[in-house]
Amino acid sequence: MGSSPNIDVPAGLEEEYYQINPDILQSFNKFRPPLSIYRFMEDVGRIASYYKVGERLSKEQTEELAELVAAGVIFVSRDDHAIYVKHISYQLDLVLLDKHLTESEIADIFQIALTRRMESFFDQPVRLVYDKVREDVLVLTEYVWEDFHRARALAKRMHGVHTLANHAVNCGLTGLFLFLSGKSESFKEAKNARATLDRTILGLFLHDLGMSRVPALIRDKNKPLLPDEMQKIRGHTMAGYEMLARLDIKFPEMERCVSEHHERLDGSGYPQKLGTGAISDTGLLAGVVDSYCAMRTKRVYAPAMEPLAAAKKLLDDGRRYPTEVVKRLLGLLAAGI
User: Fold this and answer.
1) Contact 234, 180 (CB under 8 A)
2) Are residues 271 and 176 in the same domain?
3) DSSP 190
4) What local confidence, expressed as pLDDT, does residue 9 receive?
5) How far apart are CA 93 and CA 243, in angstroms?
6) What pTM did the predictor assign?
7) Residues 219 and 302 in one domain
8) How distant, in Å, are the alpha carbons of 5, 39, 50, 76, 193 from that of 43?
C-alpha cells in the first residue's frame, strides 16, 4: 500500500487507516473482501463506509472499487489489524508491496506466516512443502536485505512456549538479527553474500529438522530420559542431515546448521564431537541460537528464562560456546534490542 499522488491525505488519517493499493485489492476475495472497506471523500475531507464485512459486492461495485483503489481513495481500518495481518500472512510477498505497514506490523505477519509454514513442514517434511518454506524465507531475507535494521523488530517476535515450529521460527528470526548484527552494509558487496544469507537463515529455520522423526512422547517428556530415548534425541542431527539429502538440499550452510548445532568447542557435543577449529562459523552461530532460544521458551521440563539470564548462562559456559558470538548477543540485549 502506498499513498497515491492523486489525493492529499489528511494528517492523522494514516494513523487510523491502511491505504489499499491494487496488489492488495487483488489478494482479497473479489466479491467478499475479508474486512470492511472505507472511501476517502475528497470533497469533505472525511472517510465514509464503502463496504461492510459480511456483505457482497456487485460486479459493478468490484469494477468501481478497482478504479477507486487506483485513484488512492480506498482504505481499511487499523482496528482490523489482526484480520489484515492474518490475510497478508497467507500471501507473504505482499509485505514487500505494502508501504504503509509499520515494521512492527510486518514482524507480526512474518511470525504468523512462518510459524504456520513450519508447522506444515514438520508435519510433512517433503520437497513440495519445503519449497513453500523456502519461498517464504526468501521473502524474509529480501525484506531485510533492503535494510538490515529491519531485523530488530523481527528478533523481538519470540514465541514463549516451545514447539518444534515455534522453536524454528524463534531461531530463524533471532539468528537473522544476530547474523546481520556482525555485518556492515558493505557485506552486500561481498561475493555470494545474498546466497550466504538465504542459505544460513534457511538452515536456522530447518536446523531441528531431524526432531520431526523423534516421537512426540519423547520430545515432550517431563521426566529424565531413558538411555534409548536419549539416543533417539541425540540422533536427530544426523537424521536431519540425511533428510536434507533426501530432499536434495545440498547447500553447506544448511547442512552445517543441521549437523553442527549441538557441537561444542570443548568436544563435548554431538554427533561428531568436533572441537575448536573444526566447527564452522555457521555451526557455532546455530549452536548459540539454538541454545538461547530453547532457554527463552517454556518447556515441559523447564520454565522460560529472561533474555539476559539466558545469554549470560551461555557466556559463563565459554569452554563450550563461542565467546565472540555470545558477547554480540549480550550487547544487543543490553541495548534493548
Assistant:
1) no
2) yes
3) S
4) 58
5) 28
6) 0.89
7) yes
8) 17, 12, 16, 19, 51
How confident is the model over 98-154, as pLDDT tens digits?
877 889 989 999 999 999 999 999 999 999 999 999 999 999 999 999 999 999 999
Residue 300 cell numbers, joined: 515441559
What is the count of structural domains for the chain? 2
Is the pLDDT assigned to residue 337 strictly greater than 70?
Answer: no
* Residue 257 in grid coordinates: 546448521
Residue 24 in grid coordinates: 492488495
Cβ pair 226, 236 in contact under 8 A:
no
Residue 159: give its domain's CATH number: 1.10.3210.10
183-200 tens-digit pLDDT: 887 899 999 999 999 999
- Residue 4 phi, psi dihedral angles, 5° rounding: -80, 140
The stretch 22-34 carries a mean pLDDT of 92
3-state secondary structure of 208: coil
* Domain edge (last residue) among 24, 46, 80: 80
Contact yes or no for 39/47 (Cβ under 8 A): yes
Please give the Cα distance from 193 to 261 (Å, whole number). Answer: 22
Whether residues 143 and 50 share a domain: the answer is no
Task: Give the whole-angstrom CA distance, residue 310 versus residue 330.
Answer: 9
What residue numbers bound the domain in which 51 lies? 13-80
Mean pLDDT, rounded, for 10-16? 71
